[in-house]
Amino acid sequence: MSYFRLIAFIFIIGLFSCNPISERKQPPPSLNQLAAADLNLNGEQLANAYCAACHVKPEPDLLDQATWGEKVLPEMRKRMGLFLDEDFGTTMPIDMDVPKGIYSEFPLIKRKDWEKLEAYYLENAPSKPNPQASKAKIEIGISGFELIRPEYSENYADLVTMLRIHPQTGELWLGHRFKSLFILDPKNDFQVKDSISTDTAPIDLHWKGNNEFELLTMGLMDPSNDSVGVLSTFKKSDSGWVPSPLIGDLKRPVNNESYDFNGDGIPDQIISEFGNHIGDLSLFLSKSNGFEKKVLKNAPGARRVEIDDLDGDGDMDILALMTQANEGLFAFLNDGEGNFREKTILRFQPAFGSSDFRFEDMNADGRKDLIVVNGDNADLSQILKNYHGVRVFTNQDDLEFEEEWFYPMYGASGLEVGDFDQDGDQDLFVLSFFPDVNQKPKQDLLFFRQDKEFQFSPFAPELGSDSHWLIMTKGDLELDGDEDLVVGVFEFDDLYSKPSAPWSPILILKNTLK
Q1: Angle at 423 between CA 420 and CA 428, to 5 degrees
Q2: In Å, what is the CA distance from 268 to each residue of 23, 62, 247, 257, 294?
C-alpha cells in the first residue's frame, strides 16, 4: 500500500473513531482490506477499524477485564481467523458444526496488530463491571392488581414458551417446551380445558376465528443453525385440532406477523428466523402454489417485527428488531409494489443484549415512539451490565428517534405496554430473565406507572415464591374491559430432572379496575 493510500486509509479510520453513526458518510473498510494493509496504528485505532467493519464498536468499559480477556476477545480473534497455540485443546469451530464463513479460513488480522488491539481493551476495561446509575426507588406491591398463582394437582415441568389471551373468550393459551399447547379456562381457576400436541415448542400464535389458528413452532429451542421450525394452521374438527403446515424449513423462528403486501387477498407472512450463527428476516409472499421467500435481512437475531406506515406514504412498512452482533432497529420501507428499502433506525453495540420492543405513542403527541428492553445475557459476557434496562426513544419525525428515558434493570428481557390504570397515558411492565439475585427487592418483574410525561414510578409485586420469568402477555382475561397480565415460568432444572412439585407455570396479575 502506497504512503498516500495509507494516509487516506488512516483518515477514514479516524472518521469512524470520532463521528456518531448517523453522521458517517463513508462505509468502514472491510476486513479483507484491513488484512491486506500494512497498518501502523495503535490499539484504539485498530479497534475503531476492525470492530466498525462488522458492527458498532464496543467501548472497553462495557465489560470487565476478565470477561474481555477470557471470553469475548478470544472468540473475536478466532472469528477473524487468527488461531494461537493456546486454542488447541479447546472447542474449535469444526467441533460446533458452525457454517462455513462464520470463522475466517485465513487470518484477517496480523498477530502484532491483534496484541495491540487486545491490550487496548484490557488496559482500559474496569476490573469489575460498572455499577448501575442511581434510579427511582422501587415500591413493593402493585396497586390495582391482584396476584393469583393457579394451583394444579399434577407434577409437570415449568417450561412455558408462549402465552396468549384469546380476545373473544379470555382463555389463556400456553405453549410448552415439551411439544404442547394448553388452553386454560379463566372461568375454572385456569384449569386445563384442552391440550394440543405440536411438532416442537410453540413460540407464536394468531387466531383466525374460533375454529382456526396459526402456530409458529421453533424447532430447536437451544442455539442451533438447523432449519426445522414450522408455521402451521390448525383447524377444529370433530376429532380435535388438525394441523396443516404452511411454511417449513425455518431457522429457529421466534415471531411472525401477517399482512397482504402483494394485494392478492391472501396474507403474506413476515417471519423472524432468529437462528444462531445464521438466520434471516424473511417475507413470504403468497402465491397460487404456496409462498415465495424473500429475504429482507440475511443475518441472525431477528427477534420481532411490527407492521406500520412508517413513512406516511400510505403503504405498510416493516419495523424489525435485530439482536445478534449488529444489533438495532431497522425499517423496511415499502415502495407500494412489494419492494422494500432498508433504513437503519437505531444501532446498538454488540453487548447491548436487545430483547424486545414496542412501537407506541408514549407522550400523546400523535407520533409513535420506540420502547426497547435490553438484557439478553445468555452469550459470552454473562455479567451484570449497567446499561441493561428499559428505554423510550421519542419520535422526532422523518424516522429519527432520540433517547428520552432510561431505567437500569439487569437482564431486562420482556415488555408489555398499555394504559393499565386507564388514566390516559401508557404504562410499562418489564420482566428480567437474568436479574441480579442479590438486589433487594428482586427486580425480575417491574411495573412502571407513568404519572406525568416520562415520569415513571416503579413497583415490584409482593411475591412469596421465587420463579424464573421468561415471557409475559397482556389481555382481558375476564372480558371486563381492563387489561390483565400473565407471566410464564421457565425453570431450566425441569429440563433435566423430573419435577418434584405440582405444576406452577404462571403468575396472573388480575387488574381490579373493573
Answers
A1: 35
A2: 36, 40, 11, 8, 11
- What is the predicted pLDDT for the residue at 28? 58
CA 4 to mean position of chain CA atoms = 44
Mode of pairing for the β-strands spanning 455-460 and 139-140:
parallel
pLDDT of the residue at 439: 95
Per-residue pLDDT band for 93 (boundaries 50, 70, 90) equals confident
pLDDT tens, position by position, 31-81: 888 877 878 999 999 999 999 889 999 999 999 999 999 999 999 999 999
Mean of the per-residue pLDDT values of the chain:
93
Q: How many Cα atoms occupy the beta-carbon half-sphere of 267 within 13 Å?
A: 14
Rg (CA), the chain: 24
> pLDDT digits over 467-506, tens only?
999 999 999 999 999 999 999 999 999 999 988 899 999 9
Cell 387488574 appears where? Answer: 511
Sheet order of strands, 160-165 included = 160-165, 172-176, 180-185, 191-197
d(CA 429, CA 171): 21
3-state secondary structure of 299: coil
Contact criterion met (CB below 8 Å) for 381 and 401 = no
| Residue that is written with C-alpha cell 402456530 in the block | 215
SS3 90: coil
Residue 227's identity, in one-letter code, is S
C-alpha grid cell for residue 56?
458498532
DSSP H or E run through 184? strand 180-185
Q: What is the 3-state secondary structure (H, E, C) of 110-128?
A: CHHHHHHHHHHHHHHCCCC
Establish how many alpha carbons lie within 13 A of residue 289's alpha carbon, considering only the half-sphere containing its beta carbon.
0
User: For residue 104, which of 50, 58, 178, 166 has the smallest C-alpha distance?
Assistant: 50
Amino acid present at 85? D
Kindly report the CA angle at 406 between 28 and 131, in degrees rounded to 5? 85
pLDDT at 4: 37
